[in-house]
Specification:
about 350 residues, alpha/beta, 13 helices, globular
C-alpha cells in the first residue's frame, strides 16, 4: 500500500474500544455520548449495581451489565471482540479519531508491528484553570524493534527507552494479540492474586512483533480523578516487587509454567524466562519509585468532591505563595506538542476535553 498518510480514509468500524467501567456511570454516560459521534465499535463491561439504559440508542455500542470482578469482565469481553484492531480505554477518557486513523494506517502498512501508540495529553481542573501535561513524553516517535522478542526486549531496556510500565497497555493492538493478552491477564491475575496486565502487555506486544509510537496525538487522559484500588486491582501492590521480594520459588515456577502455556512463541522455556526477567528488570525501577502511585491510590479513595476541594486549596496556596509552580494550561501544552511536530486537530482535541471534564 502506498503511504498516503492521513489521506487514506480508513474505516473506524475496524476498531473496537473496550471499556471496563467501575461504578462511574456519570462519567460513562459522557463517554458513550462522545464515542457515539464517530463510527468506532465500543464494548462496555460495567460492574455498577444497576444497569445503564441510555446505551440502547447507539447501534455500535455494546453494553454489558456485569457486576463481577475485573478478571471475570476481561473474560466476558472476549465474546464481543470481532474487529481487526482493539484498544482498551478508561470510562472517563477520550480517543481522537484523527490519531486513531493514523495508527490504523501504520498497522496496515507495517505487518511486523503488533501494536501502535502515539502522544498523550493529560488534562485536569486545578482551581479555575484548565491544566495539561504531556504524558508518556519519552515514547514520542520511538520504535522498539528486533528480529525476535529477546532483541526487542534488549532494545526496550536501553536507557533511551525510559517509557514506564503502563505505556503499551493502551496501544492500538491487532486483535490476535489483545485476545491473548486479555485471556492471560484475567487467568493469571486471578490465580496469583496480583494485577499483571501492564507487564503482560509488554511481553505479548514484543513476542508478537515490533512496536511503534507515531507523532500524533491520540489519547486525552482525565487526571481529575486519582487512581484507586478495586477488587482484582491493588494499585499499592506491584508485580515487580512481588516477583523480586515476595514470591516463593514455587510461585515463580508456577507463574512461568502458566506463562509458557499462553505465550504463542517458538521460544524455549529458557528463552521465555530470559524475556520475563528482562521485563521484571525493566519494571523494577518504576516499582521501587512507585511511592507516589501508592499515595495517589490512597487519595483516590477520597470522595470526588473532596478531591476537587483539595485542588482548589492547593491552587490558592500556589497562586499567592508560589505562582511559578502552578501547572501549565492545556493550551500551552498543545502549543508545545505542535512545536515538537505532533499532529492533531485542535477542534477534535477541544471536543474531547469538553466531553470528559
Amino acid at each position: 500500500m502506498k503511504n498516503t498518510g492521513l489521506l487514506v480514509n480508513h474505516n473506524l468500524t475496524r476498531v473496537t474500544m473496550v471499556i471496563f467501567s467501575r461504578k462511574r456511570q456519570k462519567s460513562l454516560r459522557k463517554t458513550i455520548e462522545y464515542f457515539s459521534k464517530f463510527p468506532v465499535n465500543v464494548v462496555i463491561l460495567d460492574d455498577s449495581r444497576h444497569p445503564l439504559y441510555c446505551h440502547s440508542i447507539f447501534p455500535r455500542i455494546k453494553y454489558v451489565h456485569s457486576p463481577n470482578s475485573i478478571n471475570a469482565r476481561r473474560k466476558e469481553a472476549l465474546r464481543w471482540i470481532n474487529t481487526e484492531f482493539v484498544m482498551m480505554v478508561s470510562d472517563d477518557e477520550a480517543i481522537l479519531p484523527r490519531g486513531l486513523r493514523k495508527m490504523i494506517n501504520v498497522l496496515d502498512q507495517n505487518p511486523q508491528l503488533s501494536s501502535v501508540g502515539g502522544s498523550v495529553l493529560a488534562v485536569w481542573k486545578f482551581g479555575p484553570k484548565d491544566c495539561g501535561y504531556w504524558a508518556y513524553r519519552d515514547s514520542t516517535g520511538k520504535s522498539i524493534e528486533g528480529e525476535g522478542s529477546l532483541q526487542r526486549l534488549e532494545d526496550l531496556n536501553q536507557p533511551k527507552n525510559n517509557l514506564g510500565v503502563s505505556f503499551m497497555y493502551y496501544n492500538l493492538f491487532r486483535v490476535k494479540v489483545i485476545k491473548e493478552l486479555l485471556r492471560s491477564t484475567a487467568e493469571m491475575s486471578e490465580k496469583f492474586g496480583i494485577e499483571c496486565g501492564e507487564e503482560l502487555s509488554i511481553l505479548f506486544s514484543l513476542v508478537n512483533g515490533n512496536v511503534k509510537y507515531v507523532k500524533e496525538l491520540y489519547w486525552i487522559r482525565n487526571w481529575n480523578r486519582l487512581p484507586k484500588s478495586s477488587p482484582g486491582i491493588n494499585r499499592a501492590k506491584s508485580l515487580a516487587v512481588w516477583w523480586r521480594n515476595t514470591a516463593t520459588i514455587a510461585e515463580r515456577e508456577s507463574f512461568m509454567h502458566e506463562l509458557s502455556e499462553r505465550v504463542p512463541s517458538n521460544q524455549s522455556i529458557k528463552e521465555l524466562e530470559h524475556c520475563w526477567e528482562q521485563i521484571m528488570s525493566y519494571a523494577w525501577p518504576f516499582a521501587v519509585s512507585g511511592l507516589l502511585t501508592r499515595r495517589m491510590s490512597i487519595l483516590g479513595s477520597v470522595p470526588q468532591a473532596a478531591q476537587k476541594l483539595l485542588r482548589w486549596v492547593s491552587y490558592c496556596a500556589k497562586r499567592f505563595f508560589a505562582p511559578k509552580r502552578i501547572p501549565a494550561s492545556s493550551k500551552m501544552v498543545l502549543n508545545e506538542l505542535r512545536s515538537a511536530g505532533i499532529g492533531f486537530e485542535e477542534s477534535e482535541v477541544q471536543s474531547a476535553i469538553d466531553a470528559i471534564q
